[in-house]
Amino acid sequence: MTQYKAPLDDLRFALYDVLGAEATLTALQGGDGHTRDLLDAVLEEAGKLSEQVLAPTNASGDEEGCHFDKATQTVTTPKGFKEAFRQFAEGGWAGLTMAEHFGGQALPSVLGTATTELFQSGNLSWSLYPLLSEGACHALELHGNDWQRERFLKPIVEGRWTGTMCLTEPQAGSDLGLLKTRAEPTANNTYKITGTKIFISAGEHDLTENIIHLVLARLPDAPAGSRGISLFIVSKFKLNDDGSLAARNAVAAGAIEHKMGIRGSATCVMNFDAAEGYLIGQPHKGLAAMFTMMNAARLAVGVQGLALSERALQNSLNYARERLQSRALSGAAFPDKPADNLLVQPDVRRMLLTQRAIVEGSRALLLYTALQTDIEARATDEAARKQASELVAFLIPIAKGVVTELAQESTKEALQIYGGHGYIAENGMEQFVRDARIITLYEGTTGIQAADLLGRKILQLQGVGLKYFMQEIAAFCQQHAKDESLRSLIGPLATATKQWGDMTLQLAQRVQANPEELGAAATDYLYYSGYIALAYMWARSAAAVSAGNQTAAFKQAKLDTAGFYFSRILPRCLTHQAAIEAGVGSLPTII
Amino acid sequence: MTQYKAPLDDLRFALYDVLGAEATLTALQGGDGHTRDLLDAVLEEAGKLSEQVLAPTNASGDEEGCHFDKATQTVTTPKGFKEAFRQFAEGGWAGLTMAEHFGGQALPSVLGTATTELFQSGNLSWSLYPLLSEGACHALELHGNDWQRERFLKPIVEGRWTGTMCLTEPQAGSDLGLLKTRAEPTANNTYKITGTKIFISAGEHDLTENIIHLVLARLPDAPAGSRGISLFIVSKFKLNDDGSLAARNAVAAGAIEHKMGIRGSATCVMNFDAAEGYLIGQPHKGLAAMFTMMNAARLAVGVQGLALSERALQNSLNYARERLQSRALSGAAFPDKPADNLLVQPDVRRMLLTQRAIVEGSRALLLYTALQTDIEARATDEAARKQASELVAFLIPIAKGVVTELAQESTKEALQIYGGHGYIAENGMEQFVRDARIITLYEGTTGIQAADLLGRKILQLQGVGLKYFMQEIAAFCQQHAKDESLRSLIGPLATATKQWGDMTLQLAQRVQANPEELGAAATDYLYYSGYIALAYMWARSAAAVSAGNQTAAFKQAKLDTAGFYFSRILPRCLTHQAAIEAGVGSLPTII
Question: What are the pLDDT digits (tens) for A251-275?
Fold first, then answer.
């Protein structure tokens, strides 16, 4: 069984010392009250809920899994999930970042990101039920009309219902242009939705009395491909005029998937059989509407990588402290014990520092990105909003793509420290590896993130976000150019960032000559960008320790991990650069 | 459900064209008959057994798992395992490489390695039952007396019984010096063995009527630590004088583990309660005796990495061929279909070529190493035997450590190509990832392999094996220096090999000054060495295509993959070099 303690000190360090979130947030529109005191109080409550209610259901939920009853087409979630959701709803967590007039608390997104980390560390499977609601809320908020919001959004914000996002079909995964689900208009301004959706998280469950599905489908006159897709609301139960539940709608789960991990999350096949639906937004503009919530969803999946890695690290560090095996290379460190602990082994420290560098670097990057979404939404200055918006667009594929991939490594190393004991289910480490394996796949595979970064954010949008980001790094480097204590970080960061810019320009030219070069370079470019972004976060973390009021040991750990990152992780860029330079000629046709 | 087809063409290419195994084997003592015809016939039969009998039980065996009955302390293996073992035994596979006077067929080890790949691809969990027997056979052959061999070895060679290796205890994993199991001498020259062993593969099962345990334990007068360990034979059933089974011995399974993968393999807690045992070899020399079989066991685990990666690659390649999704970057490749297949995406080819480079490079390296074990055992020239022995000692930690780690990447990329469908149990890809996760842990973790390579094989033994290996690479490079078609491979190979030698010397000096430097560099040095070894195998593969009689497409695929390896995988050495140079200063104390 694994332990979990909410890493509040690390979260506060990242939020306040590294990112200066308090000053930023209180200067935003509606941010007067978003002081450190308020934020800290929220983080503490979220930490308690996660430690006390969610964390204990993580292993049992995995073992028990969800159960589907074919006769009634109902899903039973694992023991404890329903009660946890009740407490979550009662605590107002479902509406944490939603506007007050929908019943939310209008707290900053960056705080939502921080609390999401805590909940996901507690129980990733469970956290998927409210996560999908969040996406549905955003869609309804941005694209629904007043009647739709009143009717469908408010109950989700209150935590009485949950939402889903129904995109994927058997023949339409990464390529949603291939989807076939049909929507036929009826006389009363509703639509009959017919088709089969797969991989629908929280498509059916027993946590709430109703579920609101947001469904992509084609109208009869829809153009082929991705420009002919519209977005619809389909409620599990039809509603009476007063919003109370009426008869079942013609939508039901046909099966749940048996998966490698996140076994407490109900991944459903959803059958729509002329189900009553309401169009949201404009006809044929459904994909664009979906994409407006994609950023939030992708950021949240990046946070899943952080959340799993954090909990895996906590446990592997404890194990390395307590497991006695062999002696230090330079002689017994604990001669009065039968053997030394694993921490005396430099190779074990290498695995632990790798995890730390990934976890804390990822946390800073994710919170940095989330903070930009707050600036984007609520800065008083339009130019600031615009710049933040570009930064978000640019950083999302990195935050999702790289953090989720690094979580594979991080959870793997955590298991490795346990040796053979890591492979045994009851020790809990293997669940993190299994759970983590989904996050490079859903909400856009790593390849999709890479294509989004290089193809859309760099080439199509001419790298505006990249330029802002590089300018910010350059300013940071200049600001600290004379800081002796940061010398070993600032120089390499400035050099690597310069190379990043040069490489991007060269690559853009090559892609112009041959579009296939985009696909040949994209994933390595994604990693390269991610390692620079994390280097920037680690340099900022190292720069931040001088001002903070933490213990000397806490500060030293940050400086040590920053040094480790720069000397042993950042050099991975060399490999990715070589791969990028190899070009599409290195990827010949396969028959 | 996944498919499997024995990769006989690739095996033959590696064996005959790349490694010249026929000429080598027929020149060895007792090797007259070991012609290509004979080897091919054996490979074909092994392929049939794997495809037809083992492969169909892989997914079902995982789903069903092993069942332990507490009352009778018996294990029921999954459906089909017993019948498969019967066919395996009847085919004489259990004694394939064992001496004829024990009932074996005395075929070369390299052939055993090749057939082991086929069986492990078919069903890794199942293959662990005969694998552990092999280790026990080697121990009995090398260290048992005539009476012990007659009594215990022959029935295993005949496939009537199986064997185990009982090393690990709860407090003694990587550090066997900590083990506590006791052996007390009795009047009749036997010993009473008492203690608990964990993680015992095939410790209890229903495939055969008896099981022979090889158990590490301490005699009453044993010195503390690893120099006080002896090796004992404990038979599940005591034997009558004629070798027939008598009463149960006081050894039994107490439980089986619930594991992340290899769920068809019974991983047992074994309780010895004054069980009757026989000492093998000298008192207190048990660990040395165990180590003589370690090479074979570690090589076989390296082969597991290959076997899983091969099957995962076959399926991900098929999927990439058949799955229609999106269009090629430079325009529709299959305009008459609703979408192009995944193969048109350079990023998907990158994932496939990564797998191919790992799979076929690993196969060549493992067979090369196995061939050296045949030379070591049966060359007519003593100097050749000595050199092969040094090469084997040097290559085993690489073959085990690096191939198993690369199998993590390879199986992960195979799953990734399936997108979300890779996460669904019934598609079978996630089982490869789960099964693969054990192989970097058992038979010595990657950290243990790294320490063995750098600490023992390079520094203690003064790198004799490395020198032979580097000389061989240098000779190969010189031989092909003027070959235009290999120019892009030979130059980088020669340069990288030179750097490897230089780095090794520098590292040796640093370790002399501070032994902690060994642990700080070992794992990165292991990877670095592995990537050079694979580069050599790929250069040899590219050089071999000109002489072979395969199709042009087959040859082109080898050249393409070699080019891919050199341009996109070999540069990983840059990162590992930087990490090695960072030294132990980059791995500060963690409290």
Answer: 999 999 999 999 999 999 999 999 9
Mean pLDDT of chain B: 97
Cα separation of the two ends of chain A: 47
Q: State the Cα–Cα distance between residues B253 and A522, nearest whole angstrom.
A: 52
Distance (Å) from the C-alpha of residue B358 to the closest C-alpha of chain A? Answer: 15
- What stretches of B91-123 show up as alpha helix (H) in DSSP? 109-122
State the nearest Cα–Cα gap between A203 and chain B, in angstroms.
Answer: 16
Are B504 and B458 a contacting pair, CB within 8 Å?
yes
Residue A424: closest CA among chain B residues belongs to which residue? B259
Q: What is the ipTM of this complex?
A: 0.98
Contact between A118 and A6 under an 8 Å Cβ cutoff? The reply is yes
Which of the residues A199, A347, A430 would you substitute to probe the B interface, choosing the one with the greatest number of B C-beta atoms within 10 Å?
A347
**Partners of B183 in the β-ladder:** B193
> What pLDDT is recorded for position B560?
98
Q: Could you tell me which residues come within 8 angstroms of residue A509 by beta carbon, excluding any fewer than 6 positions away?
A: none
Helix, strand, coil % in chain A, rounded to nearest 5: 60, 15, 25
Residues A205, A77 contacting (CB under 8 angstroms): yes
Instruction: Kindly state whether B409 is in contact with chain A, defined as any CB-CB distance less than 8 angstroms.
Output: no
User: What residues make up the domain containing B492?
Assistant: 461-591
In the three-class reduction of DSSP (H, G, I as helix; E, B as strand; rest coil), residue B275 is classed as strand
For residue B285, give the nearest of B213, B228, B214, B219 by alpha carbon: B228
A350 touches chain B (CB under 8 A): yes
Residue A501 lies in a domain: yes
Q: Give tens-digit pLDDT for A550-578.
A: 999 999 999 999 999 999 999 999 999 99
B516·A328 Cβ contact <8 A: yes
In the predicted model, what is the mean pLDDT of residues A67-92?
98
Q: CA B383, CA B391: separation in Å to the nearest integer?
A: 12
- At residue A132, what is the residue type? L
- Within-domain flag for A316: no
Instruction: Specify whether the CB–CB gap between B563 and A586 falls below 8 A.
Output: yes
List, as ranges, residues 323-342 from A with C-beta within 8 Å of B: 324-326, 328-330, 338-339
Do the beta carbons of residue A523 and residue B416 sit within 8 Å?
no
Residue type (1 letter), B219: L
Instruction: State the alpha helices, DSSP H only, in B418-515.
Output: 429-436, 446-451, 464-479, 487-513
List the 493-522 stretch of B: residues with Cβ below 8 A of A: 514-516, 518-520, 522
Q: What angle do CA B97, B101, B106 make, to 5 degrees?
A: 20
- Local structure of residue B250 (DSSP, 8 states): S
pLDDT band at B486 (very low <50, low <70, confident <90, very high): very high
**Residue A239: how many other CB atoms lie within 10 Å:** 17
Instruction: Please list, in sequence order, all residues whose beta carbon lies within 8 angstroms of the beta carbon of residue A469, skipping any fewer than 6 positions away.
Output: A391, A394, A395, A533
Residue B279, classed as helix, strand or coil, is strand
Query: Which of B313, B321, B347, B449 to mutate against chain A (most A CBs within 10 Å)?
Result: B347
CB A114 within 8 A of CB A21: no
Residue A455 lies in a domain: no
Predicted pLDDT of residue A540: 98
Tally of CA atoms within 13 A in the half-sphere of A552 that contains its CB: 0
Q: Which two tokens stand for residue A360?
A: 């804390």
Asked whether the CA dihedral B303, A350, A305, B342 is positive or negative, the reply is negative
The count of domains in chain A is 1
Tokens of B371: 């061939």
Q: Does B342 map to a domain?
A: no
Q: Provide the chain B residues 195-224 that lie in CB contact (below 8 A) with chain A.
A: 199
